[in-house]
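Checked the freezer inventory, then went back to the computational side. Two predictions to log before the end of the day. The first one is the construct we discussed on Monday; recording sequence and tokens without edits.
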Amino acid sequence: MAQRDTGTPDLLADLADGVLTLTLNRPAARNAMSDDMNQALARQLAAAELDGDVRCVVLTGAGQGFCAGGDVKGMADRNAAGGAGASIDHAIHRQRVNQRGTAGKLFSMPKPTIAALPGAAAGAGLSLALACDLRIMAKTAFLTTAFARVGLAGDYGGTYFLTQLVGSAKARELYFLSERVSADEALRLGLANWVVEPDELVSRTREIAKRLAAGPAVCFRYMKENLNRAMGGDPDECLDMEVTHHVHSAQTADHREAAKAFVDKREPVFTGR
């Protein structure tokens, strides 16, 4: 196994038997995204796309979770400080670039991608998992869109990927109500390909990834392109529109209230502003 330098402890990378495993590594924060993590993930995926030694990519999380999505505590801190200094247009463009380099790259890169979920995938963390070709979940893991609970519209392609997987009506239900989806329910809905006991997750993921890494790489490249094209629509257009709506919703009083309520460990009181 060859460890790769990602430039940050927030993301770990190792390559073995053609399988690049990228581990979101902020377990104390349930692997919530940081800027360092996102930038490193984009760099690693861009390099993996062109690296002939990488035949399959696995995305997973350290500890008991997969990814809690955006760092809501950090959002609350920024809101309390008066918000970020960048203009809204700069924020939208910056996130467009990041989303295309992470969720967009997992979806479009001409190699199989697998999300291995040891625990919760929420918000943008769910979006990253849905962007992968395949998902394997520990029986104790769960999924949730979570965005409505923090007054945000949603980002990282989740609306596109979820609608493609479960249809528009179910995607709307899961986004509007933000309820938890258990691993067994995710399997029934087609959001998960496999559900395993927690202590089997690593070995079963490795088994599947090694099989893909040993498979016909050129065939997989064109097979994935065919499958992506068969989905119809334009994922980049959806990703870009999501950013605009998500960043605008981050300016609302409802989001500021929800972020503060998250830190205070209470239910938010929304006012529609």
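The second is the one RB wanted added to the comparison set:
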Amino acid sequence: MTAVLSSPAAVPKRPRGRPRKTLDERDEGNRRRALVRAAARLFRRKGFDATSTRDIAGAVGMHSGSPFYHFKSKGALLYAVMEEGMRSALARQAAALATPSDDSAHMLRRLIRSHFDTLHGPGRDFIPVMLYEARSLTARQRAGIAQLQREYEAAWTPVLRSLAASGRLKADPHLARLLIFGAVNWSVQWFDAKKQASLDDVTDAAVALFLQELREDSR
């Protein structure tokens, strides 16, 4: 017997592209992000050792064992806080440098201003966690974060070298980068937007510490 072929109109069309995520899948992503944000906040406030998974779960309205559905351990959650924070910082820095400039002082100001945004803007909790809790990472996790840090800091090297070549930076570019990061990172200990100068003001002050001069048009 000859098989009867279905007409083309009867064959269901396959959806193009990736299938849409279900509500549960979207909620899972939201819960993961909420856990990372809550963990960053608590790790910064209480410290990694003093923060329990029960604390983190309670901060986002979950049962005490629920974080382990998303992360294998509290250490994995600590790594996620640092990794996602660094990736956010890299994206912010790339956006700040998206428009090229022939003025290296202008580019340095953008880098410092972007770094201040990372330190004091949305998602800022991960920086103190990364500065003070890295000892709690495994060797493999530390290597992963170190690679992201190298990517982040690599954007500074050509700018500082250019400034040194022009005579505007009176320091070795490598040492200058370390000193700039040390000085700017310490602002997490003292900067208060309600009591101190604006981030633009402290950016100008930071640039003035290292450069011989900063033209008004370099802003």
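For RB: The mean pLDDT is 83. The longest helix spans residues 23-46. Let me know if you want it refolded.
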